[in-house]
């Protein structure tokens, strides 16, 4: 008998925007949300990222995603669908095992093995898998360590 999966809580909800610099004031004005750090360029994906904390401690975040490369999948997504929801990210305690388990349940994986993400190893599930939503899983241990490091460097 296989173990019950541990997936969740929500790590972040990603919103695609044309410009992080243009979007940030509105998130601050409407919700009082501030970046946990300056936006970063995530060159391997051709995007610029900024995470907004929605509460103290390990509260879920909002990730703003801005495409930097017009040929990237994120840029094509923005051109086709416009600004809005891009993906939902859940934490898992064993990403490689979880990807294998999902594949065995006929989930359509974009990543069959973990790849580098902004908060540690990640894997994506194609929107055809579940309700037209792009899903991301992030490895729990790496998330916890990255967040501890971030909090220690940004008191």
What does this structure look like?
With 155 residues, the protein is an alpha+beta fold. The chain has one domain (7-153): 2,3-Dihydroxybiphenyl 1,2-Dioxygenase, domain 1. The protein has helices at 20-31, 73-81, 95-104, 140-153, and strands spanning 7-16, 40-42, 47-53, 61-67, 84-92, 115-117, 120-125, 134-139. The chain has an 8-stranded mixed β-sheet with strand order 2-3-4-1-5-8-7-6. The protein is globular and about 45 Å long. Residues 145-155 have low confidence and may be disordered.
Write the layout of secondary structure elements.
Blueprint: E1 7-16, H1 20-31, E2 40-42, E3 47-53, E4 61-67, H2 73-81, E5 84-92, H3 95-104, E6 115-117, E7 120-125, E8 134-139, H4 140-153
Parallel strand pairs: 1-4, 5-8
Antiparallel strand pairs: 1-5, 2-3, 3-4, 6-7, 7-8
The count of domains is 1
Q: Structural class per helix/strand content?
A: alpha+beta
The radius of gyration computed from the alpha-carbon positions, rounded to a whole number of angstroms, is 16 Å
Helicity level: 25-40%
Overall morphology: globular
Question: How much strand?
Answer: 25-35%
Which class in CATH terms?
Answer: Alpha Beta
CATH topology: 2,3-Dihydroxybiphenyl 1,2-Dioxygenase, domain 1
User: Helix tally?
Assistant: 4
